[in-house]
Write a structure and sequence with these properties.
- The longest helix is centred in the N-terminal third of the chain and has 28 residues.
- The chain starts with a helix and ends with a helix.
- By secondary structure, it is of the alpha+beta class.
- The protein contains six helices and ten strands; from the N terminus they run αβββββββββαβαααα.
- It is globular and about 45 Å long.
- The strands form two sheets. The chain has a six-stranded antiparallel beta sheet. Strands 3-8-5-6 form a four-stranded antiparallel beta sheet, with no helix packed on it.
Amino acid sequence: RDVERSRGLGDVYKRQSQQSEMAAMICQLAPHEGHTRTLLDGVRLMRADGALGRTPVLYEPGIVIVCQGHKRGYLADRVYHYDPLHYLVLSVPLPFSSETDASPAEPFLAVSIRLDMTAVADLVMAVDHHATASGSPVGIVSTPLDDTLADTTVRLLKVLFSPLEARVLGPGIVRELIFRVLLGEQGGACLLYTSDAADEAR
């Protein structure tokens, strides 16, 4: 039991360290509120230094990974939480409303990765995900963030400080991140929705 408890504490400390590192990097890369473009097309940073009431938004298909703060998204009668423990996956453009918890001392910080339908469809074919995914494809999900995906996000943020690394390493890390989401049970179901849309468009 002591060994299991020690491992559990180790996992907690690792996650806290990852979140602190991600938050520090986003603060440097996005010193101002709003959406900030990065050296990688399709990757944007989100920052809010104060609480935002419920407002209508339209998100493109993408993955939103929160490093600090908390957002709630409302669609019909459902509420989707995305915070440092959960990431959001949207497979289609969706109009919904959201509210943000943040403060100047602890701003809301997140990274948004736009989904390219063709790239997702190619990844689905590469891993033969149709054979392993459970559940029907869905348009939006909030999924627990695991250590592997958090580590991939840390590496993605690091390359955004260097034009050379962003150009050479960035696309591969973005592909890996989408791959990690695809392997997740809920995220995979959402990305299958995107893949099906891409197949219909071909």
